[in-house]
Amino acid sequence: MPSLSLPPGRNAPAGRLLRKWCNRSLAGDVVSGGANEGGIFRPCTPARPLSSFLVSQSFKIERSGSVKKLRGIVFFAGAFLILSNLSQPARAQTATSGTVIGTVTDPSGAAVLDAAVVLRNKSTNSQATQNTNGAGQYTFVNVVPGEYQVTVKKDGFRTSDVATLTVDVAKSYSLDFKLELGSMGQQVQVEATAQAELQTNDAQIGSEVTSDVMTQLPTLRRNAAALLTLQPGVTPGTGTFPRVGMRVAGAIDDQNTFTLDGIDVTDNIVGGLGADIAVIPLGVDSVEEFRVGVNNPNASFGRASGGQIAVVGKSGTNNFHGSTYWYHQNDYLNANEWELNRIHQARPVIRDNRFGGAVGGPIWNNKTFFFFNYEGRRFPQQSSFTRLMPSTLLKQGILQFKDASGNTIQYNLATSTLCGSGTTACDPRGLGISPSVAALWALDPAGTDPSVAGADGLNTLGFHGTALTPLSTNFYTSRFDHQINSKWRFNGSYTYYQTKQVSGGQNAQYDIRGGAAKATSKAPTDRDAIIAGLTGQVTPHLYNSFHFGWVRARQSFNRLAPSAAAALENIAGTNSSAGPIALAPGQAQTNLVDAPIEVDTQRARFQNSTGRNIQYVDDVSWIKSKHTLQFGGNFRHIPTIHIRNDKVVGSLASLEALSDADVSTFLSAIPSSERPPTCSVTLTTGCLQSGDAQRWDRLYASTLGLVDNIGILTTRDGSLKALPFGTPLANDTTLNAVEFYGQDVFRITPNLTLTYGLSYGWQTAPKERLNRQTLVVDTSNNNQSLTGPGYIAAKEAAALQGKMYNPTLGFDPVKSAGRNVFNIDWGDVAPRASVAWTPTFDSGFLHRMTGNRKTVIRGGFGLVYDRINTVQSVIIPMLGVGFAQTISVGAPLCNASGTPGAGCNAAAGTGSPGAASFRVGVDGSPCCAEHTVRRAVQFPGRSKYQGRAKPGR
Asked: What is the pTM of this model?
């Protein structure tokens, strides 16, 4: 869903920008069916990629040792008016490296030509050499983060040396040298100045976190991502919708981008709105450092408007190094919950163990290195929950209610004649509790707590349960680095993360038959990544960096399907030729009575997702005089497989019989003759209070086993042909995302840098392998695909004539339509520009204000487009009308199966459910519903609609 994101303080024009952007974004886009659309169009929400944008403007003054923002009076007004409109970074580094630049001068300040500048990695002894150009400038690009020694040599001058310069990822450093006359054998030790720590070359806003800091700061899950919210401009998420994840500089929380060793490891399904922000965990022992770009992304970071998090994995060095660790938490140190203490139940067991180790070192000194890290977690925890159980008397078919005088009246539905005017049989058929319902409730444990929410203390009581919900994780990462020669290096890594988790909590599914609770909700994950990179120097001034990535994330939310639960319960009267039919008395609305195994939609649905990202990235840097030109491309191939048995609401892909799903018609049809008389001013005993009427109806229908609805989610193939019962809803799609960029870092003078560039990209529409996608069509206009502008224009035209425009909608498979679900947006051109100026005043007021090379003034402009994650482009559209539909048989009569039980009076119809409605376990098998449902999925007039769903259905 497209959205507009503006930095703080830029909200005033948001409405105008949104209106303008909506006009553009709707043009020519086909509206596709979605989960909550059903023919209702929402302006400015077309299904299209890269549809929202962020206009970012910033202005920043930095001084070594502090950061200052200009406020109040405009200082240096002329220059600031220019700079305040700029905010794009100007650097040649990539997501895996940094940049070191500088100028070499003689004692008079003149540029020194052909001075040899050597950059040596102190951990691996690898080194690179650059000769200064006519302006005395040198540039090192693709510098691996770490500690370096910088040496400058030139005949006739003493050798200058900086012993330690720390280079961080995605950051540039300026290091100037003023050579002294003498011989090269004489060496001058130079300290890295404060200028080297300032961002003097770009407008990037953000900071880096090194491995030392990560291991010292507390992280609950030992995941470096937990430290991201400590960055300035980052707002932590709440964990609940709509603020699930962190937001960076006001951008939407699903627009953050993570790169690991140059490869995108962002969760492409939900974009960080789930439990994990990145697909691959960022373990603190496997990460060398990361940098968060809070604002003003580089042209090479053009995929989304959120934070740009560049992560570099640890690698081996010439020295062996390693670590081992074990963390333990025990429930002996914890207090029990108040609720459990109150009912004298022991505290849940907690034995949380997290352990692991890391080792790295040389395979071949100065050439080949390795690193390996393993971390495991074993957490055999328990979860507490409550359920509503039928009381002992309710299990016997006896309902209990208090009258207006406070007396508890018992109604044995098989024999009671206290209904109607107080002399009528409550059950017209005189049968009482359904034998199937009695068998089901017999599996429920006894309730003991009347204070649990929803319990009335008479018919229902609360049950407190605990169940084992163990968590087990394994994380492996291995890395191999090889210095091919002085100009080329290779790195490769493999990471694997596995989670075996049994889900707990109040909303999980449990099997509580007999009182021994067992959690049946499982959420296993398997995630892995292969990353390789080749970086080197093609010519003295031409560099190339190529990266390949294969990232896969498999995640499941597995529960027992209602049919599987019904098979385990094995209740007589619930079998059919289509398989077991789950019985859910009292579960359809707010829970009245819980089943031994929950079969409601929210607790019994499953989902399986497999997402991959196959990525090719190439960056080229060309140093030409005062220019550093950088070009690159990024190609992502993103296959996604999503399988589920639900559409969030409605039935699951299993037959399920409900007793109280339809309050508005079925339950409200229960006549007063099947209910005790209502209490009044004159009638205060032996009566039913008005506030208990609906509860009576629900318990009455559930206890007798009255079936008001048998439903199932049915699915169809790409030609809209019905599939067998139990077939889940599935999508197997692929889409591609392509980006190109180019930029020039122009060092006009040693203290003034201009960067300008352009990013361009597009994202294709998802293509389903079996054509299981639909388009919304206007059946009154020759089944033409509806577009946003077309719909609004027709609506406006009808309104001007005083008419309604409400066309009959159809859903056309893409195979028949001969087009994709939405058009590709080819117009996502994103310009970037920035300026960085370091004042060099030697005296006077300006020197006192800015110092000499101690202050940097930066600013830039950037236009950024959002990506659309697959939850928006694949998963939500597959929930729309077309390939899955909840169908049901409502209120079958007692003679529906042919031979009803005793007392059946089908002629009474829906006006007397107690006399005429089908009773499970009494009136035969509900198998009859299968044939009725089967007929419901057919499409009469299919030739007329050429395989389309019948309009209006």
From this structure: 0.79
